[in-house]
Design brief:
4 helices, mainly alpha
Length: 106
């Protein structure tokens, strides 16, 4: 979510952010403005990959404040923790996705 909604920075100008957003929406076939882009991207990975991993922050739709690692920052990396089970809605969506895309244990 943080990457998708990034307004821009000296390392990634606003024009580049907007171009990448449009490209992601087009690639994923998303017709809305990316309201659930985190689930769209997860779906885009699990459909084509032999092995698919996504951080819990993506399943929860969290933004940049929940990043695990900022390479240029020496403090605060790898401190994000999941303090409780994800909401039932997230767990059910993940359960459905694993079944739909053939990733559930047989």
């Amino acid at each position: 979510m943080g990457w998708f909604h990034d307004p821009g920075s000296p390392q990634r100008p606003p024009e580049q952010c907007e171009q990448e957003r449009r490209a992601a929406l087009a690639y994923l076939g998303v017709k809305d403005s990316g309201r659930e882009i985190h689930w769209d991207m997860i779906r885009g990975v699990v459909v084509v990959a032999n092995l698919a991993l996504a951080p819990m922050q993506d399943f929860l739709g969290l933004g940049s404040s929940a990043r695990m690692n900022l390479p240029r920052d020496l403090r605060g990396n790898w401190e994000w923790r999941l303090s409780e089970l994800p909401p039932a809605e997230v767990r059910e969506r993940l359960r459905q996705a694993t079944r739909i895309y053939g990733r559930a244990a047989q």
